[in-house]
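Exercise 7. Predict the structure of Protein RUPTURED POLLEN GRAIN 1 from Aegilops tauschii subsp. strangulata.
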Amino acid sequence: METIYIVLFLVYAADHAKRVKTAKLVAALDIGFFGAVFAATTFFIGGLDMKIVVIGLICACLSVFMYGSPLAAVRRVIASRSVEYMPFFLSFFLFLNGGVWATYAILDRDVFLGVPNGIGCFLGGIQLVIYAVYRNSKVGCQSQGTHEASYDASTSLLSSYAGRHGQNDVSTHV
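Solution. The predicted structure, encoded as tokens:
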């Protein structure tokens, strides 16, 4: 899936500099890092148990980075007081995924699954709390003087009472 996404980005990205930068990052991180880990565990680490521990630690660290990456948008969310740059479903499914895998890891007593996914569940929870705090903030171009510019579709996503009060009806905002 990641490969398809990257190829589509490289084909359709408007900025040539971004395409070159992305291609370099893919080569360095996806190919170079994997090659270095493969070479190190194959040639420099003896014993299957030690190889499993090293690869498990690397994978655990990368999982924590993956779960924490949407937190990069938190600074912008707090500064703008808007969740426009933090998609709800990404935060929700990171929380759900981390929770399910952490539960499985507890049942299976697997520390390499439990620690990063427990941290991921916690980080996803932080993102959901931040989303809940800033979900009702309105963004848009207020200088036009129109109400539809400030309508935030994500507001109705979490509001259980939105349908009863007409907030869910886009026609009331247009």
